[in-house]
Write a structure and sequence with these properties.
It contains 5 helices and 4 strands, in the order E-H-E-H-E-E-H-H-H. With 174 residues, it is an alpha+beta fold. The longest helix is centred in the middle third of the chain and has 20 residues.
Length: 174
């Protein structure tokens, strides 16, 4: 797994590679210099259908709901991680409502395009787990079987990643 180099370590340490998608060349160049100074390997996206498609899909939804888009994409060995940060005022009920609406819409749209999410806020874990329905929800069934075998009382992180213990499944949650 790629790691960031510690200060003073030699070039033998592998670094995380980031894909920056930015339509303003000056901003892209500034981002590249700053991230490289911090030890990242940076690629600027000039092509890459999935990167551009995700950028357009996510940034347009975020802006439609009245927020500023702040995101980056990190390239792994076989994956593209699109990290999006949405800054909002948690004391503002309208902003919370718009954020919730935006995020739920993005979950559905990403799943419809075949993109999977692997990490999220606990509030959205059930919705995201529900997008992995291939083979009659085989993945969830396997995860539940393991959960039931290792944690039959459901003490350890009930509901984490949409995996609920047997007694809390099917809407029987506290």
């Amino acid at each position: 797994m790629p790691v960031l180099p510690m200060r003073g370590q030699g070039a033998a340490v592998r670094t995380m590679r980031l894909l920056v998608v930015e339509d303003n060349p000056s901003v892209a160049s500034l981002l590249r210099r700053g991230l490289e100074r911090e030890g990242y390997t940076v690629d600027l996206a000039t092509t890459g259908e999935d990167a551009i498609k995700q950028y357009r899909m996510v940034s347009s939804r975020v802006r439609e709901h009245g927020f500023d888009y702040m995101g980056l994409m990190a390239i792994g060995f076989r994956e593209l991680h699109h990290v999006t940060v949405i800054v909002y005022d948690k004391t503002n009920a309208d902003e919370r409502r718009r954020l919730d609406e935006c995020f739920n819409l993005m979950i559905k749209e990403a799943a419809a395009e075949g993109y999977g999410e692997y990490r999220t806020h606990i509030q959205y874990m059930d919705a995201i787990a529900g997008t992995y329905k291939w083979n009659d929800s085989a993945l969830l069934k396997m995860q539940q079987t393991i959960k039931d075998a290792l944690d039959p009382k459901g003490i350890l992180a009930p509901g984490k990643s949409g995996i609920w213990p047997r007694h809390l499944r099917d809407g029987q949650r506290p």
